[in-house]
């Protein structure tokens, strides 16, 4: 029988992570499968992952109807480049055209700090209209300043629908790597800025709900000027996100996090082999910071209570 996991209509999703993020990559996969009307073939670029982690991850994915292929990254390709707080896996999405088999001509890349709430088949079937990628505009008004492009022409690299055939034919991944080698030391958002630097004007804008970044709550109130999405589009994404992207340092697996989807995220984490994994900031100081952050806790309560009943509480 033919391998249906590589059929044209099968959703192909790529992630990149190291051991620190493997549990959270599992949440992405599990949430995507639960929201999906059909199977998904996952491609993981695994940076120094333990064999036991890979085994647990594969069991989790396969038990929910998905498949998992794991690829060893080229550790020398981005050696010496700054990683800041992101770790070495941050660059590996750039080289997906090399890692994935030639027969895969399109892939949906998703960051490991996300939660999928809508069937990815809808996003997968987006017409790229000749563009090498489709993405959501980066909502923060500051990130674009490193490369000097207008805010509404700068995309977030956390969710990317990529035409791998076009990337391979044009060598786009080589161009992005060369851009990094030349400019990485002055870039705060290293991979994202490099992708934007090379692909200026060559990306299709996706609806904002496909990458609902944490900045959206501030943007819709204070910083909507210059954003290409309307207030109503931003508000609609807040009410019904397709993918929640936990941008910034306050992740939902940490104690110090006030995101309204934090509790719903933890429902999925509890269904993974890493259900008992303690928060990485599990200290008295972090607990005290969370407890005494009255204004942020109030915002969290208000935003959580505006969610549909499906996403509230435990």
The major β-sheet equals: 7 strands, mixed
The number of E-state strands comes to 10
CATH class: Alpha Beta
Q: CA-to-CA gap between the ends?
A: 43 Å
Architecture in CATH? Alpha-Beta Complex
Average pLDDT, rounded to a whole number, is 92
Q: Which strands sit side by side, in order, in the main sheet? A: 3-2-1-4-7-6-8
- CATH-level-4 superfamily name: Spore Coat Polysaccharide Biosynthesis Protein SpsA, Chain A
- Beta-strand percent range: 5-15%
Q: What is the fold-level CATH name, i.e. the topology? A: Spore Coat Polysaccharide Biosynthesis Protein SpsA, Chain A
- Structural class designation: alpha/beta
What does the overall shape look like? Answer: globular
- Over all CA atoms, what is the radius of gyration? 19 Å
Tally of structural domains: 1
Tally of separate helices: 12
List low-pLDDT spans: none
SSE string: EHEHEHEEHEEHHHEEHHEHHH
Portion in helices:
25-40%
Structure characterization notes:
This protein is an alpha/beta fold and 314 residues long. Helices cover 34% and strands 14% of the residues. α2 links the parallel β2 and β3. α1 runs parallel beside α2 and α6 crosses α7. It is globular and about 50 Å long.
């Amino acid at each position: 029988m033919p391998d249906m996991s590589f059929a044209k209509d099968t959703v192909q999703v790529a992630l990149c992570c190291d051991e620190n993020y493997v549990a959270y990559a599992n949440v992405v996969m599990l949430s995507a499968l639960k929201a999906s009307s059909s199977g998904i073939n996952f491609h993981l670029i695994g940076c120094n992952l333990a064999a036991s982690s890979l085994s647990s991850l594969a069991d989790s994915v396969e038990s929910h109807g998905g498949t998992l292929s794991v690829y060893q990254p080229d550790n020398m390709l981005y050696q010496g480049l700054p990683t800041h707080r992101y770790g070495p896996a941050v660059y590996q999405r750039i080289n997906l055209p090399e890692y994935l088999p030639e027969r895969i001509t399109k892939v949906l890349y998703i960051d490991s700090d996300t939660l999928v709430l809508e069937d990815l088949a809808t996003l997968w079937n987006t017409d790229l209209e000749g563009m090498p990628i489709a993405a959501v505009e980066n909502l923060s008004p500051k990130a674009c300043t490193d490369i000097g492009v207008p805010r509404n022409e700068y995309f977030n690299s956390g969710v990317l629908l990529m035409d791998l055939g076009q990337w391979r034919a044009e060598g786009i991944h080589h161009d992005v790597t060369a851009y990094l080698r030349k400019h990485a030391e002055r870039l705060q958002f290293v991979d994202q800025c490099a992708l934007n630097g090379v692909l200026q004007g060559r990306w299709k804008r996706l609806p904002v709900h496909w990458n609902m970044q944490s900045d959206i709550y501030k943007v819709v109130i204070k910083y909507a000027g210059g954003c290409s999405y309307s207030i109503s589009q931003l508000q609609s994404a807040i009410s019904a996100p397709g993918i929640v992207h936990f941008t910034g340092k306050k992740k939902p697996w940490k104690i110090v996090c006030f995101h309204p989807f934090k509790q719903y995220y933890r429902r999925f984490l509890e269904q993974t082999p890493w259900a008992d994994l303690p928060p990485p900031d599990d200290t008295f100081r972090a607990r005290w910071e969370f407890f005494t952050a009255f204004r942020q806790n109030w915002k969290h309560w208000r935003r959580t209570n505006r969610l549909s009943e499906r996403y509230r509480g435990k």
